[in-house]
Design brief:
The protein has about 260 residues and is α/β, with parallel strands linked by helices. The chain has eleven helices and nine strands. The strands form four sheets. It has a three-stranded antiparallel sheet with strand order 1-2-3, with helices on one face. A two-stranded antiparallel ribbon has the order 4-5. The longest helix is centred in the middle third of the chain and has 29 residues, at about 90-115.
Length: about 260
């Protein structure tokens, strides 16, 4: 009998291309007091079983579990670790790098420099990849960059309608909403409505241009510089720039504490 904090999940990988159709692999995951472990079992008797045992009650756990893609990724990762094909520490280091050191801070520095240096801004708009590389930011997922500038009359919005193409070297790991089917579809069909949900309410005469990222081209939005920031240093300006503003789902503003 499982305790109230134990969750058992039998996950069917029958539809996963990496697995044999004849020899379905299931992943048994147990959460117990925040300790997570995996155990993979071979069987042909269980199919698509999602069950949570809470005391004497049993419930289907679709709403309590991570999404299906997340389950697949984590389970496959566990299999690769067990076979010695990948190092968990290396994965953690890469994630930490993109979330902490690489992340949106790089893009914010690019934007701040463009705001302060008109010559750099001109180079950025003409050859984004080269201008970004001047600051030392380049690499996988950022080889072919295009910079697009927001103005009083034009607002740019970036999406990837096919998957989640994203400029990792300057923005880090893409957020979950960017990868969601809802955003990918509605950003093209109803960009003004999507922006409103992010708190970006534009004048009706503002032209909204939607840019579709691909595996060949990634976009970086240069947001409008906020009024009242003329005396700010490049470092201070960079602290104002957010990830969302460089995707187009945000506006750069000056916090009240800075205004004062």
């Amino acid at each position: 009998m499982a305790s109230k904090l134990d969750i058992f999940v039998f996950y069917d990988f029958n539809r996963t291309p990496l697995m044999s159709q004849a020899d379905t692999t299931y992943c048994l995951r147990q959460w117990h007091h925040s300790n997570l472990w995996f155990k993979c079992i071979k069987s042909r008797e269980y199919r698509n079983i999602f069950m949570v045992e809470l005391g004497d009650k049993k419930k289907h756990a679709h709403t309590l579990l991570p999404s299906e893609p997340a389950l697949r990724v984590r389970a496959i990762e566990t299999l690769l670790v067990e076979k010695g094909l990948i190092d968990p520490a290396a994965i953690d280091a890469m994630v930490e790098a993109f979330e902490g050191r690489i992340g949106p801070k790089n893009g914010a520095r690019v934007v701040a420099k463009a705001w302060k240096n008109l010559e750099y801004k001109a180079r950025l708009l003409l050859d984004a990849s080269g201008a970004i590389a001047e600051l030392g930011y380049s690499g996988l997922q950022g080889e072919h960059m295009v910079a697009i500038e927001n103005t009083e009359s034009v607002h740019n919005l970036v999406v990837c309608t096919l998957c989640s193409c994203y400029p990792w070297p300057v923005l880090g790991v893409p957020p979950a909403w960017y990868k969601s089917p809802a955003y990918r579809a509605r950003a093209v069909r109803d960009p003004r409505g999507v922006l409103a949900e992010f708190g970006v309410n534009l004048a009706m005469d503002t032209d909204i241009q939607v840019w579709d990222s691909t595996s060949e081209i990634r976009y970086l939005v240069i947001p409008q510089r906020p009024e009242g920031s003329e005396s700010y240093s490049e470092e201070t300006l960079a602290s104002l720039v957010t990830r969302n503003s460089m995707v187009g789902t945000g506006i750069v503003t000056i916090p009240e504490i800075k205004k004062g």
